[in-house]
Amino acid sequence: MTRRHPSTVLTASIVIAIGTTALLTACSGSDTPEPTRSATATRTASPTPTPTRTPTTTTSPSASTTTAPAPAPVPSDDPSGSDDDDGSGQGTGNGSGADAPDTVDYGTVTKQGVAAAGGGTVVSLAGSGDSWTVVVAGPDGSLTQSVVSATLGRVTSGPFPKDSDAATKSANAARAAGLKVDAAAAAKAATSAVSGTLASLQLGGTRAAPTWTASVTVSGAARTVTVNGVTGAATAS
Q1: Is residue 229 a contact partner of residue 184, using CB atoms and an 8 Å limit?
Q2: What are the CA-CA distances from residue 19 to residues 26, 29, 65 (Å)?
Q3: C-alpha 34: how far from its chain's center?
Q4: If you placed Cys at 121, which of 65, 91, 129, 176 could pair as Cys (CB 3.0 to 4.6 Å)?
Q5: CA-CA distance, 227 to 190, in Å (whole number)?
Q6: 135 Cβ partners below 8 Å, 6+ apart?
Q7: CB 125 within 8 A of CB 187
Q8: CB within 8 A of 125, min separation 6: which ones?
Q9: Which residues contact 115 (CB under 8 A, 6 or more apart)?
């Protein structure tokens, strides 16, 4: 039997192995190469744009449409806001500004002064035309002063307290207590005794004999008339 040389067998094995490898490679390969993706082939989706908010514009009113201020209310002649004035309301000025009346109702003027003082007795009256100053003594003799419009029939200034000492208060209270003829009646009696215009009226005397002293203007000259506070008798001098 013939023995093969070892190198011959090894050579043949290598040839067979190479051929097998070539065959397997040919069978597994593909005729069409796989395409390569480029960097530009992949697109990145851009973010959805955020809508821009449009600012709201507030239209300012035109200068031509500016609303004119409401007119100020016209003040009433009555400081209390009522047409019916009992004289208890306080005045708002130093005078009424009203025209002087043809005649003065001293009853209304003195009543308004007493009401403004909260009660009492008129012990002094002075003025001219529309404006009259009324002084009232309270039960204790203390004095309160007000200015009254004869035309409007109401207080236009005051009431204001008047300082007085204890002796004066005592005398005022005593005279007021003994008085029978009030200021309105005394003013009428004085102007009846002397035809003229009353300028002032002042209570004096004592409790037993209260006396009114009136100053009446006649043709530009002052006349003095004394009125008895108990009987109302008037005496001119």
Answers
A1: no
A2: 11, 16, 106
A3: 95
A4: 176
A5: 7
A6: 113, 122, 123, 124, 125, 143, 144, 145, 162
A7: yes
A8: 106, 109, 110, 132, 133, 134, 135, 183, 187, 198, 200, 201
A9: 86, 87, 88, 155
Residues facing 135 on adjacent strands: 124, 145
Per the confidence metrics, is the pTM higher than 0.85? no
| Per-residue pLDDT of the chain in tens (237 residues, 90 and over written 9) | 445 554 444 444 554 555 544 444 444 444 444 444 434 333 444 444 444 454 444 444 444 444 445 544 444 444 334 344 444 444 444 455 567 787 899 999 999 999 999 999 999 999 988 999 999 999 999 999 999 999 999 999 999 999 889 999 999 999 999 999 999 999 999 999 998 999 999 999 999 999 999 999 998 899 999 999 999 999 998
**CA separation for the pair 114, 15 (Å, rounded):** 153
Supply 137's token pair: 């003594």
